[in-house]
Design goal:
Elements (H helix, E strand, L loop, with lengths): L1 E3 H11 L4 E5 L3 H14 L5 E6 L3 H12 L8 E6 L6 H13 L4 E7 L7 H10 L1 E3 L6 H14 L3 E2 L1 H10 L4 H15 L3 E2 L6 H6 L3 H9 L3 H13 L4 H16 L10 H5 L1 H5 L4 H20 L4 H13 L6
Helix pairs in contact: 1-2, 4-5, 10-11, 11-16, 12-15, 15-16
Length: 320
């Protein structure tokens, strides 16, 4: 069973801590929030140790402790990463230890991925349960976490600027926070308004994946706005058509196990797929192929064609 970071923390403060946790997702902010709040609950009386198991010394340290039966010292939080890469023998040892540990020796497993692809990781998750530390798909949830952090740091930010940052830097929460803290450090004040970012700076930070994300959600106004920004900043039409083509091919074959998309788009494929029928996607793919041929064999105005195409996609024109 998978739960959110907020719910997991509320459970700890209500019912007490468990002996082990499994954080699934590579959003460093959510990982850090969970660990820091767990330490706060334990009144910082627990020593924190980090084990990155792709490093020989960490492997030796961790498994020498387990094999010697001394295990970990009491009142220890052990943060374990890359555990899915250990040998079969060490997997068995670690799995047995997870079953035997108690609340004075807390294990926190972290998997920097958006899904479990490894049998050993799945076995551990079945014992520990899962806490979702993936960047939320919903921008409102991202915004809530950012607001939560800035309130704790007594930083005030203009709402329109926050909306912009969430829309354009939403690959993880830490990136948004870093952007704001950059302006805070430059201006040395804790009130940040929308003037902190000039419009030309904004448009240069919009990438092609933002367009795919907007198209996947069928958000027409955002789609057109993002495309126009890309066009103004010199992004060629043909690569955009090819990326759209690959995007829809990925949606139609989302069970293939291989993705050419970045991790943000890959993690949202199932939500995009709910917005399109299979027939609609196939019609869009054909239309994109035709547009690609048109661009390569004629002198037609590419911007007008793409704007028209995007309107048709977002309005469901191809769903027939």
């Amino acid at each position: 069973m998978q739960t959110s970071v907020g719910k997991a923390l509320r459970t700890i403060y209500k019912d007490g801590n468990k002996s082990s946790y499994f954080l699934l997702g590579d959003d460093y902010f959510l990982q850090n929030i969970f660990i820091s709040k767990l330490k706060d609950y334990l009144k910082n009386k627990f020593e924190t140790k980090y084990y990155y198991l792709n490093e020989t010394n960490d492997n030796d340290s961790l498994f020498n402790n387990i094999n010697s039966v001394s295990l970990f010292a009491s009142n220890t939080i052990s943060i374990i990463k890359n555990f899915n890469k250990v040998s079969m023998k060490n997997q068995s040892n670690l799995l047995e230890y997870v079953k035997k540990t108690d609340e004075s020796n807390i294990l926190v497993f972290i998997l920097d991925d958006f899904m479990i692809k490894n049998k050993f990781s799945k076995k551990i998750s079945q014992i520990t349960g899962l806490i979702d530390t993936r960047t939320p798909i919903n921008n409102q949830k991202i915004k809530e976490w950012v607001i939560y952090y800035f309130k704790s740091e007594s930083i005030k930010i203009d709402n329109s600027l926050l909306d912009y940052l969430v829309s354009n830097f939403g690959n993880d929460i830490s990136t948004i926070i870093n952007e704001v803290e950059k302006y805070y450090l430059i201006n040395n004040k804790k009130e940040i308004d929308s003037k902190a970012i000039e419009s030309d700076y904004q448009s240069k930070h919009i990438k092609a994946w933002h367009l795919l994300n907007a198209v996947g959600q069928k958000k027409l106004a955002e789609t057109i706005d993002v495309y126009n920004n890309l066009h103004i900043n010199g992004i060629s039409s043909i690569p955009i058509i090819m990326q759209l083509y690959n995007f829809f091919m990925e949606i139609i074959s989302s069970n293939s196990g291989y993705s050419r998309l970045n991790k943000i788009l890959s993690s949202r494929i199932s939500s995009y797929k709910r917005n399109y029928t299979n027939d609609e996607i196939m019609n869009i793919i054909i239309a994109l192929r035709d547009v690609d041929v048109m661009f390569k064999t004629s002198s037609i105005n590419n911007e007008i064609v793409i704007n028209s195409l995007l309107v048709k996609i977002c309005k469901g024109h191809y769903d027939n």
